[in-house]
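Box 3.1 A note on notation
Throughout this textbook, protein chains are presented in two layers. The first layer is the amino acid sequence; the second is a token string describing backbone geometry. Keep the layers aligned when reading.
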Amino acid sequence: MKASISVIPDGPVAGVVELAVRAEGHGFERCWIADGGTATRDVYVVMVAVAGATREMMVGPGVTGVGSRLPSQTAVAVASVGEVTGGRVMVGLGGDDLPALAEGVATIRALLSGDARLDYAPVDTEIWVAGRHPELFELGGAIADGVLLDFVYRPELGAAAEAVRRGGPAKIAYRTSVLTSHDDPDFLRSHLARFLVDGPEAARAAGVGDADLARLREALDAGRPGAAGAMVLDEWIDPFVIGGSVLDCANTIRSLALEHGIDEFVLPLFRMPAPHRYLDRIAQVVSAARRH
């Protein structure tokens, strides 16, 4: 099982680079970087910076929306990063419009490895799709090299993996936060608020009521993610993350990977008070999970 990090570059590029270098030292092999448009630093600039400061770490947008950038522009950007990094590049795509997502994957694949291949594109650049909905999982299995299962409601993780396999032979990555007994979940609350609103069926299964979802949506739509996060209860968080002691968390990751055929575990590094200490601690969990 590969180990990766994902970051949102909503602060200085140097801070992202420091985290990536530290992560590589702990054995993490890949760095997915969010494409947040004007809310973040430019994803491709950050990718080049991370690749330039690390020895072997793969980098990629994780994810870029097919509706926010033309797929042909994404292909050119990814191929260019691959050219300057010696091929250490991948691409992750997302979007709610599944026909547009499929068309975007086809366009990018043609430019990276197909009949219209850019002559400077690295060979065998992986194309991933990411999301939290079953329809996307099956489509991704059919059209992509990998599918990133993003904060999936854990009791439904097996069904999600099966949906990918129904679609085709794509690899499976699982992205979620790890909370040991030393970790305060406050850094996660505003992000989980968005996940709950975007996936109301899973939210309801986790015990979130319709009135709660309406209040969360109202706060997020008003541009108040902190207020939305303050409404998120601990019991809503638990079924979307991996929690317990270091050993418990390692055993959970390992058992989920074996049971559901997970090829890659992705640790998100959100904005938090002490990200380096958190990374050091969770790296022990991931390392233990991979040893057996």
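The mean pLDDT is 96. Residues 2-184+241-291 form a domain with the TIM Barrel fold (CATH 3.20.20.30).
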